[in-house]
Amino acid sequence: MSPAPNPAPQRPGAAAKTPGRLRSSGSLRRRLALQLVGSAAILASVLFFAVLGFARDLSQRSHDSILFASATSILDSVTVQGGEVTLDIPYAALSMLGNISDDRVFYRVTLDDTLLTGYPDLPVQATPPKGVPITDRRQGEPSFLTTRYRDSSLRMVTLSRLMALQEGAREISISVAQTRDGQAAELAALTRSALQLGVGFFLISALLALWTAQWSIRPLDVLTGVVSRRGPKDLRPVRHAVPTEMLPLVHSLNRFIERLRISLTRSEDFIAEAAHRVRTPLATVRTQAEITLRRVDKPENRTSLREMIRAIDESSRAAGQLLDHAMVTFRTDSLERKPVELSALVAELVDRLRPVAELKDIDLCCHTRNVPALPGDAILIQNAVRNILDNAIKYSAAESRVDVTVHQTALDAVVTVTDAAGGFPDPDTTALTERFVRGSNSVGTIGSGLGLTIAREVAEAHGGQLDISPSDTGAGACVSLAFPLQ
Amino acid sequence: MRFSRVPFAIAALFWAVFSIKATGAGSDVGYEVEAQRQFGTPNPASVELQILSTTDTALLAPLIESFLQSHSDVVIDYSELSSAELMKAVLSQDTTSSDGFDLAISSAMDLQVKLANDGFTRKHSSGVRALMPGWSNWRDHVFAFSQEPATILLSRAAFADLPQPKSRQNLIELMRRHPDRFRGRIGTYDAGTSGLGYLFATQDARSSDSFWRLMELFGSLDLRLYCCSGAMIEDVASGKLVMAYNVLGSYAQARRDLVEKILILEPEDYTNMMLRSAVILKTSSEPDLAGLFVDHLLEAAWGDDADDLTSGYPFRHYPVRSSGESAPYRPIQLGPGLMVYLDRLKRAKFLREWHSTVEQN
Questions:
Q1: Of A212, A276, A295, B248, which shows the fewest CB atoms inside 10 Å?
Q2: Residue of A nearest to B346 (CA)
Q3: Chain A stretch 290-349, residues whose beta carbon is closer than 8 A to a beta carbon of chain B
Q4: Which candidate in B339, B347, B350 is best for mutational testing of the A interface (most A CBs within 10 A)?
Q5: Superfamily of segment(s) A336-486
Q6: How far apart are CA A443 and CA A420, in angstroms?
């Protein structure tokens, strides 16, 4: 089973970005389990009482039938001899009662209301009202009674029959009774068995209920895993097979992702388009401004124009970086890997940027070692390294030095750019790679804050990473880009 | 301090014993005690057990003495009386009081069952129960501690020149062949006056059809009726009787002095076994002690070391058989079935029939 995941809103990243915590309306698994266990408990108690009732009834009936048989055998022994009603109780009549349990036995035989034999103080069955003729009573039908006698609970059967005597019809009535100790013990044993049955049924049902709850919730867990394992840029629709009940949810989720993707693409397109449209006129404006600068002599005018050129540079660089970023985003979305010779790529880039560095008398030193070709997008990697180099040159003071090295570690090919520009004052270097975030020392320097973001996104698109650390001398920063070789 | 109290205590005990004797023997409560004996030496700390019994005091004395050896603080007041008087004694007591008789030991199985059925007895969960056969215990109220056969006693002298009978059938043939030898010299219990005789007769009637044939024959040969086994044994030994039917085997076996004169026959067709039983009465003031005494009886009867002579068990040990086995020994079953013969109408009818069979003249 998959490890029980925390409820989704508790994930650290999500919680930080969600405005206010997501409220949980309780665990579905727990609710399902509780309901199933609850039904199991109800069913188990129904089973217990049903079995108990059935057993009780059966035991009572078998006991009654033996009492009835006993009373019948006594009734059968009744004879009339010389006009006298007499009877000869068979041995079996009472011994058969002794066979089912060691209970006490009582009996009574009456003719009308006079006692013939037996226990005179045995409780009397409720007789029908006097007005009802005897013949209307059901003859030979036993009537049963549970009562108390001599400090014991007693089950009694009474049988009646009309005897035709010379002086007329007389009713002979036979009662046989037995105490219920044996029956009570039997019932206690039955109750124990029924209880064990009920508890066993409940335990098995509860286990099954827990398993069912766990099993029913699993697709949800799986989907949660599938969605939360996605990378930050992964906006593909969810294709994972899910149960029918979850299809609408996944459909909605997919539609939502699609809308988000379209909206994101649209805004990226829009930015790229806007940057592109702004850059070309800006180039024209800059050329015009430089021409004008050559023509004017007044120092205040020249100053104004230089300010203007600087502003134009900043804008066009920002536009360029926005375009770069859009390009990087597009290319990383559908990354095409081809072997890239990192050393050659870096050497060429350094050569290209050397004139810019020399403008500020910055010594750009390149140390490249032969590194095996790595699978990647050469344009993207070049873009990333250029942005880092740009940054280093831009922030370095005149007549300082920037070192570029390419080397190989166990798994990666690494490009490092080390400058002496004072490093990053902010200890939180990861924040620098967020979009439009600039270091606190960037005031007065042209920049958009996208350079490190681009470098990081390229590195991550290739499965590598961007590291920022203070340089060995402490005079500047060391930015390294690592790309896996495989 | 302690010693000065002793005379008072002894005086009090004597007074107590006498007052009990007075009520026990008194005619106002309506039962007769044949013999009374006190076992154990009373001391101020002693506890008294009052036992009502139909068993000869001498027969049970060794068993009582062996109990007292391990319970020195106990005094046993043993009253010997007939089974009917025993019943009267128990019924005359106030069942709600708890300072009456503790135990009733009787050979009248039907009466013992009736006492238990009608609520005069106390339940006792005996530790010996596991050793006892199921039929020797009814409801943990009635505990049988002996098996005593209903035997046929023959005079050795009279049968010297006759083949020894093995069964009732043999006996019938012998009596038919030699009626003169038997005439007026056959004895049996008077079922009408003796409880044990009635029990044996009813069980015989239930067990076999040949019983009535036998009685018919007895009746034609001037049957003599007796109250008790002892008298029959004496008369067979003296030669007054040739044969006595349904004599309690245990009593005959106990008369070792008459071994030369009498022959004890346990019929092969079937031999009813009377179970002597003990019940603890509701009126007992010492039910736990009474339980211990019952356990002592049961241990001697059914225990593993039953052949141990030191227990003083006076009855023969018969092998314990399950009721399913077909054997000549038939223990009479304890249970409500026995109460059938106590029924007023049933008893009257049976005795009427019995008397008309055995008293033909």
A1: A295
A2: A88
A3: none
A4: B339
A5: Histidine kinase-like ATPase, C-terminal domain (3.30.565.10)
A6: 17
